[in-house]
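Form 7-S
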Amino acid sequence: MRYECIVIGAGPSGATAAYHLAKRGVSVLVLEKASLPRYKPCGGGVSPAIQSWFDFDLTPAISVKSYTVYCTWQQEEAVAIDLGDSPIWMVRRDVFDYFLVQQAVGQGAQLLTNAEVKAIEFQKDSWLVHTSRGQFWGSYLIGADGAKGNTAKWLGFAKQKKTVVGALEVEIPATTPTTDTYFEFGLVAHGYAWNFPKADGYSLGAGGFAKQRKAQSFHRILENYASGFRLKLQDGCEYGHPIALWDGFQKLHAERAILVGEAACVVDPFTAEGIRPSIYSGMRGAEAIVNALAGQSDALDNYSAIMAEEWGKEMMWARRLSQAFYRFPRLSYQLGVKHPSAGKTMVKIFTGQLKYSQVAQRGLNILSRLF
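Output:
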């Protein structure tokens, strides 16, 4: 069967692209290798700013709205940050991703689950996609299959600019969890630990956001961290997963194909936030496909340019700030988190209320004067 666009992957980026394409009348097929809904390791923190990119209410997919953030250094020196009327949304990815893709289906997109993509071929002016459930033709292709997906490699992006790092996530059930969010900066080298609330428990995690010469035991770190909340790792389930961080400007399109989400390495190199940039890239990617179908010859080139201009420039600052912050973590915590106004600024960046370019230069100048 032939479609105007085939989307490989039903995560936030793929589901967003499918929704906006279908809403514009484009015939879309979404291929997902798993059965939905499916669990996805992820802290699940996301900015309410994403609501402006959809014309339907996201509330049913939100597990918790967190209005208070606590930051600590080695589980001490706590800083409380009141988020006022701009909470961090906490989502469970099985619920959130499935909700998004169902909205796409509601607009007319076709969803095929348990359909692992085995190979792709470009023939004349179309893509032939081979899956475990048959073959499908698409005029255009969107690779949204994440950090571990094959689409980027198949499209010729073997030398993709990215920093692949690891994280460990532990889901611990609780009957009456708090709605507060916690970030811990002193236990993990070149990264942080977190405790994100959900309606039925906690998502504890630890991640190092730079390549390490010496391996860290995230399990041991999380055992220590969990004890501070009177939680035990053995009461939950552990999941390790890779994260593909943004690591430089690069082309995100090929012949009648684009990459979105973690397949495009759009993850924030400072906070490792992935949901918001994935959704943004899916939205922008859909616009590019619509324009290409309308006959705009440079539509996909423009997608790469737009992502570089509107996302990449911010991530350039994020990477610089990340390198400085995690190189001098103790001092950075004192100046960049514990200072009365700095913690709120950091959270505003995470929630999309502030841009890195608005604050990073000032922070880097302070550090440069000290060293």
